[in-house]
Amino acid sequence: MTEEFFSFENIINTMGFGICVYDAYGFIRYYNPAFSNAYLEGSDKYKGRHFSDIRNREYRQLTCMPRMMKEREKIFIQKQLENYGSFFIDCSPSFDENGSLKYIVETIASAFKAPILPLKEGNSDTQAVDMFLSDVRMKSILETITRISNFDSTVLITGESGTGKSMLASFIHSRSKRAGKPFVTINCAAIPENLIESELFGYVPGAFTGANPKGKKGLVEIADTGTLFLDEVGLLPQNLQIKFLELIQDKVFTPIGAVKSKTVDIRIISATNLNLKKQIAEKKFREDLYYRLRVIEFNMPSLNERPDALDPLIDYFLSMYNRKYNIAKELSFQAREMLHKYTYKGNVRELQYIIERLIVTSAGNEITAADVPNTISSEISDSSDVIDTTDFDAAVNDFQKELLLKYFAKHRSSYKVAEALGMSQTKASRLMRKYGIR
Fold first, then answer.
1. Which one of 189, 257, 345, 381 is CB 3.0 to 4.6 Å from 232, fit for a cystine?
2. What is the pTM of this model?
3. CB of 213 within 8 A of CB of 203?
């Protein structure tokens, strides 16, 4: 066989998964037939074009290139797409001896084709899976959930509002030996204090004036054999805390007006955004109940602490609302970059609201930077105006490098960069050498 037969390109071209090579600025230099057939409709006209020019919807949900251009570090993640299956995406940068980025190799490989949970609003298990697969911060939580799957220990989930505590609770239930059994949720903050006891424990006929003459099953009894999730448990009325302590310890409860107690087989998961130790110090929460609820404790990090999770969550919510409104809108590279720079005080819930708003209010099929709400663009503008005056020279150098990179990515020559910036070619070449721009 000839040497040409064993060439690197021939070997790459026979592989069944997509491979694309980009230069340091995100321009396409090579791709194999598997990549072309999957994402470029078999076209050979994309060489030299920017990755953001690829309009294929599946590719735009899978690619890690927007993140790679920002972080310039190896990325390896798994994603699930409805009707497509599970994918492994590897985005690997290559650097020269001076530490300058030379090129990026992205591979997209289908892990398996299998039925995927239907993608719909409110499917918290699917949302939780996407969150776990999306970033390093959630990896240890997933590993712990796997280890405790055969145990019924109580779980306490803490974290800011909007971080996805209820999604995590649903996911824990779905990965436990009680999966397929009832998963019953009660929000302790949403039910008036005078009604919460009857909602939780039920009542017998004639228990009080206005009661259903047939009596009523409480949520605790409805959850029998499954999981009871107490959301905002920090707001549980004090007169009910002793009853929950009894429920956890002995698995018994007494409906309102009943003489005999009932026994149930349930697991209890609770969540709160309050500092329960502070609640205990202020005599608002029982210390013994606190320790009973937190045999296992998970703290949900804020979305701002999980930058790796942004792209998977953005893609998830885009897909969810496209389906909900029966449309097919995409997010431009510039708009996505703006979402990356924003501070999410409302965490995942705020991101979900923003994506739905963009889907509903944008005019065209592509959501552009102009469609991004003023609250986001103004925050980004304000933060970009702040310069650390303690190192003025470093700030100037950073600005020069960013500007030159931007113009070189567009014009590809020092002569055109100099012309566009209104400086001599000699100066442009000197600055580009200074910052390692080739």
1. 189
2. 0.60
3. no
